[in-house]
Every structure is written in structure tokens, then in C-alpha cells.
Specification:
eight-stranded parallel sheet, TIM Barrel, homodimer, 2 domains, 11 helices, about 375 residues, Lyase, Ornithine Decarboxylase, Chain A, domain 1, alpha/beta
Chain lengths: ~375, ~375
């Protein structure tokens, strides 16, 4: 079957771009002398994980219990569950460790969680490797590197019989709002120095802190030095998206995933072309709008084997299963986008667009949809 | 298992509220003398469909091919696929009709689609019942009631051997942005008169137009008269949500679905409580913000059997699997929302929040999660 003949909406993945993105990040990791533990929440696919871990130690970062179970079942046995652990998830994670002889590293940033996780793990006759989450400026989760709580958490973990202190970890999420490459570089250095400082304080207190791990695609693309760090965990670089283009982290040619949709209507009164991909197929993420005008819920591009006379088309509005295409200059190519025509939509935020789909149709450059990769979703 | 012990994020459904909402809409349909064909894209569940069609003729409205296949397999054999048909979906829909002896009504608003659908249906040795979509002011899809295209479309459908003209249909989506009950009533009358006018023009041209169908929860709650209409297709009324509360269409007590999440962190520097429900579990829909301050990605409420000292908590920000709770007065109840505590999040837009989940935990008023209803999702 040709990609141009897929039933829509469908998710397609450009294999050559994926491989190039993964090779480039592996090269960066090598240059910095750090190991790469890709955050696979973006792709949620064992095939993508295999490509992303080529030449690496094989560890992954995951974001849900469902991902942990899926990747462990697909022979990925060293997983960091990269969301602050809810103690009630310990039984499910312990079961995955047992069933697949896997190691699931959990993350936490406070004594109450350390205590609850320790008790829950003990109840399961299980043990967990723990990373302490460090806030290096993102202001989402994590303990400040200078906070007295840091050593209290490290001590609580180190003293638990069912927990093992593996290291420290951060995610510089604020790099997603940087206004220049210079600012991304400053955030990368802030992340590096913050997490290294936290590790120094823990080891100075006589506690172990073997792994010093940082994340985020923008900071990993532009970091100038990673001294003291030995693991990186970027994720969206596997696919990239319009938000990363807007940030200056990649070019549009680096975007590996897009949604194929079909033209279902022409609304000349509102000057919109309707497609069958809406809020569920694209997500309501508007992140790229922070940097770019006329991007809406995604940019319109031709499907392989077709031509589109305009490059200024975007999804201006969505309802649940409808998308409304507008043109930046209000000149829509009605004839090219006739009823039944197919288009591709480049995503604002690949992680959210990809999430609800069950599979990728893999474009190997021949315009066919013969190769299908199933993926995990949900929780 | 208690709802308070569910692994999170989880979707819960209050059965008593669902039944009350469905009974109220059935009563409205009865009062207006119209049949009710619920739009089941909100719930995507056979059990909900059974309750929503109690005492009705059993027809449903669906929004995806996956829903059509699922509901046909669950004995719902009269389905209107309520998104302008993409001709490439005809083979899949024809297969569903054959396999389940079902009738799938398709909708379209232009001659090109009518022609393509006719050819595609003929190729499948199949026939489809067709509704012509009418734009009564929503400016999404549909032909204007006064447009000359209307009769051209009706003629194209009526002359096709594989299509049967069943009627006209509209969805007053602009009612979602009304600023008062009076405005919703005006839109309801605009919808009614527009679709009735379209039906009159078709029948005056000697063509059949048996069913005159209107939709949208706000207009169906407040419509004063539905003369000339014989079918209604509201959907979100089954569950309601914060957007409908903001519109004045329901009260918060009418919201039947919510997401249960667990507190995973306290960030006192940013004055946020972290939970394990983020952009994927809640959606990035911000619709309720059009009407209400401090609602963010959803309001925080207690889970059954627990107490929450504050009613002004909301999800102020989300990332993929993280939610950040803020308080309207910046006074967070840190002690009540300790690590591991559970909360419920009322959704902004139930359709989008519910979509990615695989199941409902049904709250029958006893605080347990013993009853589980599976649902369909995806495409």
C-alpha cells in the first residue's frame, strides 16, 4: 500500500530521518564521553528504541508503567521511570522487575516519597535503584542542589533496605522556552553545574552517587561541556517537531513524524479547507506558536509522491476529528487540495501528537506503507 | 478495590450522574417530539450507549471508523458517521455494514464528495444512506441553507444508485462560545430554522428529505422549539464538563467523569503540588478558560471517601505526565495533599480527556472500582 492510500488519520515515520537524528545524538554523547539513555516517551516503540540505543548500553527512560512493562517485555531491561514515583505504583513496577529480570530505576525528590517507596518495595520483597531528582531551574519537580533537603533525601534512600541510591538526575524543561541558542547554552551549563553540585554534596556526605544524569533535547544539542555528567536522557530529538524548529534546535527536514489526513471539505465562506485530523490526531498543543506565526496546530506538507503549490498552509483550528486548514496569505490552493486529496501535518509537539496512535507506518523512502511498527500507549 | 486505591491516572465515571444526564436529555427529546441519536464520540463505550439510548430508537452518532466497527459489533446497527466522509473510508464502512448487517449513514456537503462516495460504494457493491450537512452558522462544515450548491448535492445523491438521500443534518458548534442562555437560544433557533429551510428546499425540488437532524448539547438543553426537526444528536451532555458549566448549560454536580491522580511532589519554591496526570491524561484543552478564571487544565476535587479543605485548586500547568496544582489564593493545602494523596480532576472538555483512556472505573456510589467498562479509542 502507498502512504498516499492510507486510511486517515495515520501516523507516518521517516526512517532515514529517525536514523540520522539518533546517530547525531549518539555522536554527541560519544563526544561528551557520556552514556545515552533515550527518553522513549516520545516514540513508545521498541523498534525506535532499538535504533536509538544502537552502540549504547541499552538503558531507556520511560514515563508510564505501561511503557515500563512494554519495553521490559521487549528486552530493554534497564529502565528509568522518569516521573516522580507515586508509591502506589511500586507493586506494578516490582512485578515488572520480577517477570523480566529488569532493573527499574525510580526517581524522587523528598523524604516522604523515599519513606513510602521504601515501605512499598519492602512489602513486595523487591528492591529499587533510586535517582534523586534535582531542580536546576525548571521549577517543575526536584530538590534544589543547595537545599538541606537534598542530603536528607539521600540519607533516607541510602538507609533503606529496599532502595539503592544510584545517583542524581535533572531535566532542564525550561530550555523549551529559551529565546536563543545562547540562552539554551546557558541553561545547559546551569543544568550541568547544578546536578554536578548536587552529586558533590552527596558524595561529600559519604553517600554513593554513581550516576549523574541530565536531560532535554535542546540542552543536549547545544551543551558545550558535560564535565561531571555521565548520562544524558533527551527524547524528542528522535522525532523532532515544530516547537524544536522554532527553538532553533533542528530544521524542518529533521522532523521524522507526521500525520496523514484527507481533505473532506471546502468551506469557501470561512476560507478553510477541512481535513479528517483534529484535536485527537494532532493534540491541542500550541507550543510552536511561542516562536512562529501561522503555525496553529501544525504545518501542512505534501505526502510522498505528491506536490503542494503552497508552503504557507497550517491547521488554524481543530475540533475533535476536524482540522481547518488556512493559508498565511489567505490564498488557499483549492484545486490542489481537492476532496479526497492527502496532506501531511508536521506536529507542534511530537510527544503529544504521537501518543494516541497505535502504530507507525514507516516510510523507507519508497512511498509505501508496507512496514508497520506497533507502539504502546496509555498508562 | 476502592477508587481511592486505583493506580493512577485513572478515569472514573459516576453512574448516578450519567443516568440522570441521559434521562434528562431523553425527557427533552420526548417533550420536543423528536428522536434522540446520541453522539457517542464523548463516551466511546457500549455500556454508556445502552444507557443513553434507553427508550430511544437505538441509533447513535459516531466520529471514527473504529467507533463504527465497535458499536456495530455491540449491536448498535444504525450509526451516523458524523464527520464529512472521506471517500477512502467507504471500503471500511461497507465492510462494517456487511459484517454486522448495520446501516451507516454518511454525511457530506458537496458534489465532489457525493460523486466520489457514490463510485466508492458501487465498487464495494454496497449502498449508503446520506445526510447532507448544513451550516447554520458554525462555519466549520456544511452547505448554507440558501446556497444553490444544496440542491446540486441533493440531486447528486438522489441520482446515485449506491446512495440514498436520508435527510439533512447540522451541528451548531458556535453555541460553545455563546455568552448567555439567551444567545444559546438564538443559536438553537438559527440552527432549527436553517436546517428546516434546507429540508424545505430539497422537498420542494421533489427530492426526499425524511430526517431533519440537529445537534449540540447547549442548543438541545435550551432550545425552545424544534418544529420541523425530528432527530437530535447531542453528545457531551452524557458526561458534561467545565466548559459546559462555564456556558451555563449544567452545574458542576452534573459532571459524570473525572480523572483520579496521585500527589507525587511538593514544590514550595514554585508553590505547586505535583500530580501524575498531565497533558496526556487531561488533554491540553483550555476551553473552560473562556468563561472561568483559575480553571487551567481542570479543577481539583476530592476522591470519594476523602475530604479536601479547599475548592479553589486547579491544574495550572501540565507536561506530558505531570500536572501542577495551584490555588487561586496561592494557599495550597500541603498537609491534606501529602505525598501519595489522591485527587480528582474535573475535565475542561470531557470528549478530549476521556479519549485516550481504555476503560472507566464506574463509581456506583459505594466508593469502589469493582465495575469496569472497557471503551474504544483511536481510529
Amino acid at each position: 500500500m502507498l502512504i498516499a492510500d492510507l486510511e486517515t488519520p495515520a501516523l507516518i515515520l521517516d526512517l532515514a530521518v529517525l536514523e540520522r537524528n539518533c546517530a547525531a545524538m549518539a555522536e554527541r554523547a560519544k563526544r561528551h564521553g557520556v552514556r545515552l539513555r533515550p527518553h522513549i516517551k516520545t516514540a513508545k516503540s521498541a523498534e525506535v528504541a532499538t535504533i536509538a540505543t544502537r552502540g549504547q548500553f541499552g538503558g531507556l527512560t520511560v514515563s508510564t508503567v505501561a511503557e515500563a512493562a512494554y519495553f521490559a517485555a521487549h528486552q530493554f531491561r534497564d529502565l528509568t521511570y522518569g516521573v516522580g514515583i507515586a508509591p502506589n505504583k511500586i507493586p506494578a513496577l516490582a512485578a515488572i522487575q520480577r517477570k523480566h529480570d529488569a532493573v527499574i530505576n525510580i526517581i524522587l525528590d523528598n523524604v516522604a516519597t523515599a519513606t513510602a517507596a521504601s515501605i512499598a518495595a519492602e512489602k513486595e520483597h523487591s528492591a529499587f535503584s533510586v535517582f534523586i531528582e534535582i531542580d536546576t531551574g525548571g521549577r517543575r519537580a526536584g530538590v534544589d542542589p543547595e537545599d538541606s533537603e537534598l542530603l536528607a533525601v539521600a540519607k533516607a534512600v541510602a538507609e533503606s533496605k529496599s532502595l539503592k541510591l544510584a545517583g542524581v538526575l535533572s531535566h532542564a524543561g525550561h530550555s523549551y522556552h529559551a529565546r536563543s541558542v545562547g540562552e539554551i547554552r546557558r541553561i545547559a551549563e546551569q543544568e550541568r553545574s547544578g546536578v554536578v553540585r548536587a552529586a558533590q554534596r552527596i558524595t561529600a556526605a559519604g553517600l554513593p552517587c554513581e550516576i549523574v544524569s541530565v536531560g532535554s533535547t535542546p540542552t543536549m544539542v547545544y551543551a558545550e561541556r558535560l564535565d561531571g555528567v555521565n548520562e544524558i536522557r533527551p527524547g524528542v530529538y528522535t522525532f523532532f517537531d515544530l516547537d524544536q524548529v522554532g527553538l532553533g534546535v533542528c530544521s524542518e527536514d529533521d522532523i521524522a513524524v507526521s500525520v496523514v489526513a484527507t481533505v473532506i471539505g471546502h468551506n469557501r465562506r470561512s476560507n478553510r479547507i477541512l481535513i479528517d485530523a483534529g484535536a485527537l490526531a494532532l493534540s491541542k498543543d500550541l507550543s510552536a506558536s511561542e516562536f512562529t506565526k501561522n503555525v496553529g496546530y501544525g504545518l501542512i506538507r505534501p505526502v510522498p509522491g505528491t506536490v503542494l503549490p503552497a508552503s504557507n498552509l497550517f491547521v488554524a483550528d481543530v475540533s475533535q476529528e476536524h482540522g481547518m486548514i488556512a493559508a498565511a496569505d489567505d490564498e488557499l490552493p483549492w484545486d490542489s487540495l481537492s476532496i479526497g486529496a492527502k496532506v501531511r501535518i508536521l506536529p507542534n509537539h511530537a510527544c503529544l501528537t504521537v501518543a494516541p496512535f497505535d502504530r507507525y507506518y514507516v516510510d523507507r523512502g519508497d512511498g509505501t506503507a508496507k512496514v508497520v511498527w506497533e507502539k504502546i500507549r496509555g498508562w
